[in-house]
Amino acid sequence: MVEGADDAARAPDAVVDGPVTKHAQLRAILLERVTSQWAPHQAIPSERELMAEFGVSRATVREAIRQLVEEQRLYRVHGKGTFVAADRVESRLHLASFTDDMRRRGLVPSTLVRHVRLVPAPVEVTAALGLAPDEEVWEIERLRLAGGAPMALERGFYSNRLLPDLGGIELTGSLYSIMALGYGLRIDGAEQTVWSELATRSTADPLGVGVGAPLMVFRRTSRASGRPVEYVTSWYRGDRYQIHMSLSGT
């Protein structure tokens, strides 16, 4: 059963005076629409429209919406409005490209390449990839989408020595496939660190979330036959992504 379905089934058609607070009544009405009428990522009516439809104050509307945002049934986009949240995509922390990962979940992956440029390797990239001093790397920043909605912002670094002319290749698909088929470098292992942080302007804008929204961050150094070939950081929307882990006792 969908969480909140009982509330939705009992949702009234109007907000009235009575023992149940008006913002709780309005929350129930909006939840019913989220679960049965509105599509994922659809914009909901504005505060003014909801005030007029239900004859309630702005404070009542804001409290009802605030609760649904906290419950992750709605999400806000700064300057654009409030939208219906989709179900989260679940990851099992296995080694796979974003493209393959989303396809396995029945979602259509797509990519917007934000920039590709050849730069001197930053210190941390030099160390992670075992590069020579002053070696150049490809810096590739891409926005990854699932079902047409932003899911992750990805910034990766790749050795120009190992992957010459990478900047001249179409990079909207799987980089792992490109490396395997075009360069003979098949990713077979990685070290990954995961943490959470709040979105800054540089991550919030492309992901379509507000500054301060929760993000999950993955930093991975990937290897091909034991050789490090990729140093990538990915910022995932906290409202659209979750991790599943299987644990066992010893």
Automatic annotation (TrEMBL):
Residues 20-87 form the HTH gntR-type domain. One of its GO terms (biological process) is negative regulation of DNA-templated transcription. One of its GO terms (molecular function) is DNA binding. The keyword DNA-binding applies. InterPro entries: Bact_HTH_transcr_reg, Chorismate_lyase_/UTRA_dom_sf, Tscrpt_reg_HTH_GntR, UTRA, WH-like_DNA-bd_sf, WH_DNA-bd_sf. Transmembrane segments: none annotated. Pfam families: GntR (PF00392), UTRA (PF07702). Keywords: DNA-binding, Transcription, Transcription regulation. The keyword DNA-binding applies. This is GntR family transcriptional regulator.
